[in-house]
């Protein structure tokens, strides 16, 4: 009886809480509870209680939120996102809003998920103000742009230069290489030089015009992503890395920007996993109603949960990564490029078990 009374008191407290809160109680994501603030945020009412998240909000299903929730239920890994756009349906009209939200997996004594606690804050006004301020700063603050350009060039040029140098040293020292192996190295070096040329060309354009817009075109990543992975494997001497690449969909983006995004994310995934007995990296993508979501997952050291949002700041790294080579510039650059592409990056991680990066590219 007392447990039931406690449960009712908790539900009553949550119902009056100022933070928008909902609870999903089954693997099919049935909505067991949504307080007044969450119903207000969803522009909905109590008739959705008992329905699955997908049935109650088919537009959220199309935007990929259902897929994220199911991953949380399956893995037990909490998902935290900031400044995330969502189309909220009010009557027959859709309104674009921005949210900070958390899908927290609630685990039993066997570490199995028994519910997901969803909390959310509408940050539309903050986000729009931030976008306006950022645009004004980009136009007015040349020094900031030049600092970012310098960091970008100095950081991202290292990978292709190191690949080219390693290839030349191998060809020079190992005279007994087969013709096939030599040709393979020539292709790797040629690809590295092409990547370096793209970085330099993009940096020059950005330095010439602060209002330069990254040029979007359809990029077939299935044709180039394996070579970027191979670069990272060579750079990190990760020959034992177990790599799985599947469901690679084309996206609308800028090729030079994509190299910087994926080389940084893949490089981190391999670097922080190679000390495992069976280091692994998986890359796949999913189609949503509004674009393509890419997932890069490793089984490395992970990131402390309370540090995930901070690692996007310049020169910031996870406190457990300080013994690894690097300065904490890569993810800062990735986030800036994703913003320029109108995309989003989110990270979920379990300390000691690995990290998953979600990159969303709009149509």
UniProtKB/TrEMBL annotation:
Q: Which reaction does it catalyse?
A: ATP + protein L-histidine = ADP + protein N-phospho-L-histidine
UniProt keywords (A-Z) are: Cell membrane, Kinase, Membrane, Phosphoprotein, Transferase, Transmembrane, Transmembrane helix
Single Gene Ontology MF annotation? kinase activity
| Chief location category | membrane
EC number(s) reported in the record: 2.7.13.3
Which compartments does it reside in? Answer: Cell membrane
- Please give the superkingdom of this protein's source: Bacteria
- Residues annotated as coiled-coil are none
Q: Where is the Histidine kinase domain?
A: 152-363
The top EC class, named as a word, is transferase
Known SMART domains for this protein?
A: HATPase_c
How would you describe this protein's topology in the membrane? Multi-pass membrane protein
Q: Which InterPro entries match?
A: BphY/WalK/GraS-like, HATPase_C_sf, HATPase_dom, His_kinase_dom, HisK_dim/P_dom, HisK_dim/P_sf, PAS-like_dom_sf, PAS_4
Protein name (Swiss-Prot/TrEMBL):
histidine kinase
Starting at the broadest rank, the lineage of the source organism is: Bacteria, Pseudomonadati, Bacteroidota, Sphingobacteriia, Sphingobacteriales
């Amino acid at each position: 009886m007392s447990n039931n009374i406690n449960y009712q008191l908790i539900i009553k407290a949550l119902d009056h809480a100022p933070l928008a809160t909902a609870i999903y109680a089954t693997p099919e994501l049935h909505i067991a509870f949504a307080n007044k603030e969450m119903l207000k945020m969803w522009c909905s009412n109590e008739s959705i209680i008992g329905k699955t998240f997908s049935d109650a909000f088919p537009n959220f299903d199309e935007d990929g939120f259902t897929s994220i929730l199911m991953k949380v239920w399956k893995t037990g890994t909490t998902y935290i996102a900031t400044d995330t756009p969502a189309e909220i349906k009010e009557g027959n009209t859709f309104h674009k809003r921005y949210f900070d939200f958390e899908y927290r997996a609630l685990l039993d004594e066997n570490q199995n998920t028994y519910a997901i606690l969803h909390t959310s804050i509408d940050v539309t006004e903050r986000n729009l103000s931030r976008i306006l301020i950022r645009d004004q700063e980009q136009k007015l603050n040349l020094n900031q742009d030049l600092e970012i350009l310098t960091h970008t060039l100095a950081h991202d040029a290292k990978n292709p230069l190191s690949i080219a140098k390693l290839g030349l040293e191998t060809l020079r020292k190992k005279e007994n290489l087969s013709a096939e192996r030599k040709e393979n190295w020539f292709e790797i070096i040629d690809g590295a030089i092409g990547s370096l040329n793209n970085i330099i060309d993009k940096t020059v354009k950005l330095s010439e015009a602060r209002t330069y817009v990254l040029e979007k075109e359809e990029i077939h990543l299935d044709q180039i992503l394996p070579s970027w992975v191979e670069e990272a494997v060579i750079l990190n001497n990760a020959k034992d890395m177990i790599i799985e690449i599947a469901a690679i969909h084309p996206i609308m983006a800028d090729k030079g920007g994509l190299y910087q995004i994926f080389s940084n994310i893949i490089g981190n995934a391999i670097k922080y996993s190679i000390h495992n007995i069976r280091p692994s990296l998986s890359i796949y993508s999913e189609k949503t109603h509004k674009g393509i979501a890419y997932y890069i997952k490793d089984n490395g050291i992970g990131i402390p949960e309370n540090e995930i949002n901070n690692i996007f700041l310049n020169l910031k790294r996870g406190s457990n990564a300080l013994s690894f080579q690097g300065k904490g510039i890569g993810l800062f650059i990735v986030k800036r490029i994703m913003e320029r592409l109108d995309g989003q990056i989110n990270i979920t991680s379990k300390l000691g078990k690995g990290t998953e990066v979600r990159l969303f590219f709009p149509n």
